[in-house]
Amino acid sequence: MKRFIDTIKNIFSIEELRTRILNTLLFITIFRLGSFVVLPGVEPDRMNFASQGLLGLLDTFVGGAFSKASVFALGIMPYISASIAIQLLTMALPYFQKMQKEGESGRKKLNQITRVLTIVVTLAQGLTYLNTTVPDEALLVSRGIFTVSSIFVLIAGTMFCVWLGERITDKGVGNGISMLIMIGIVSRFPGAIIQEFSSRGSGQILIFVLEIVALYFVIMGAVMLTQAVRRVPIQYAKQVVGNRVMGGQRQYLPLKVNAAGVMPIIFAQALMFIPSLIASLFAEQSDFASNVATIFANYTTWQYNLLFASLIIIFTFFYTAISVNPQQIADDMKRGGGFIPGVKPGQQTSDYISSILDRITFPGAIMLAVVSILPAVASLLGMTTEFAQFFGGTSLLIMVGVVLDTLQQIESYLLMRRYEGLMKSGRVKGRTESVAV
């Protein structure tokens, strides 16, 4: 305990780090306060929101602002959607690939395109949200006036969230966009704990304690999945420059077991409504279609979870294939004078890295699928829906990843000032990429 208190003192004794932490807390407070500001013309008590499926996931990401018809109802999600689209375009179209390789100027152009696309995505998602989620009985004005005014408010709210995320990245502890998503998720955790404790009552305290212990081990498993890497040794050739011998050092290429992050779960979750939607169109003509619609409308059925897990495994391989380019890694190593011992540079190095990726991606995909269906298992065991969501899925992985990144940032500041790090042994590795950008 004394060491923990000393570490906290060291953190706040560094002026730059203290300022960044206080700035982050200020921006997070503004973000949370904005989630309680309701759209003009809405009576929030009359909102009838279904918290299941993809809409429930979106509501979790924005800390309940989605179900409250807040000015931050869409939060940062349109920006993430636009960022994913631009990321995929940089892998598919030469124009965007060239722009990505232009350095700082190319990055600024991509950011500008992403912001414009964010406005377009917010416009589309906002119209859908207003027409499908806000019922007529919750409106205090006519539908037309409400839709037009709210679209501008939602676009302004989303862009303000983007600005807050960028300020956290520049003036705070970093990783601002992911930080806002994590805060939205964490904000619902105390209420979920209280709800679960109330549902158990005084006669089932032991069961509640066992659930907390189980949650602890699930979080530890998610940390292991996030941090697990396969280190491939790289040797650099020695070069004689004048009277000095350069190079010759040995380094490692870290290949993550879960290189795809949370994206496979997000993609799979977005597709899981399709079977139920298609089956519901034929429910009146066929009992089989009616049963299928009922089965896939319930996220705790084994059929739903089997399809969900299968999609996650498929998307894990797909996203890893498009996000990790073994050929580019091999070319960069060759240009830098590096090679893998026992493997020839060039195509053989690319094939060797691809084979390692295939071997480590499969167990990573299985573990990711297991984590994704744990909330359904927790619900079947009698836990409340709110509490069960924290037993796995996108929410848990985002929280773990962002916390590890934040710890890594603080750790680096402490080590630069020659303070002892946050961890007694080892080092906080963090992620190599952000959650959803």
Summarize the structure.
It contains 18 helices and 5 strands. It is mainly alpha-helical and 437 residues long.
Give a verbal description of the structure:
There is one protein chain. The protein is mainly alpha-helical. It is 66% helix and 6% strand. It has 18 helices and five strands. The protein has helices at 2-13, 15-34, 53-61, 77-92, 94-100, 104-132, 143-171, 176-186, 189-200, 205-227, 263-271, 273-281, 287-296, 302-323, 326-335, 347-380, 385-388, 393-416, and strands at 229-236, 238-241, 244-247, 250-256, 338-339. The chain has a three-stranded antiparallel sheet. It has a two-stranded antiparallel sheet with strand order 2-3. The chain is globular and about 80 Å long. It starts with a helix and ends in a 21-residue tail after the last helix.
Could you tell me the mean pLDDT? Answer: 81
Head-to-tail CA distance between termini: 37 Å
Order of strands, widest sheet: 4-1-5
Helical amount: 55-70%
Contiguous uncertain segments of 5+ residues: 431-437
SS content category: mainly alpha
Secondary structure tally, helices: 18
The sequence of SSEs as H and E is HHHHHHHHHHEEEEHHHHHEHHH
What is the number of strand segments?
5
- Please indicate the percent range of residues in DSSP E strands (runs of 2 or more): 5-15%
Shape: globular
Give the arrangement of secondary structure elements.
Blueprint: H1 2-13, H2 15-34, H3 53-61, H4 77-92, H5 94-100, H6 104-132, H7 143-171, H8 176-186, H9 189-200, H10 205-227, E1 229-236, E2 238-241, E3 244-247, E4 250-256, H11 263-271, H12 273-281, H13 287-296, H14 302-323, H15 326-335, E5 338-339, H16 347-380, H17 385-388, H18 393-416
Antiparallel strand pairs: 1-4, 1-5, 2-3
Helix pairs in contact: 2-7, 4-5, 4-6, 5-6, 6-7, 7-8, 8-18, 10-18, 11-14, 12-13, 14-16, 15-16
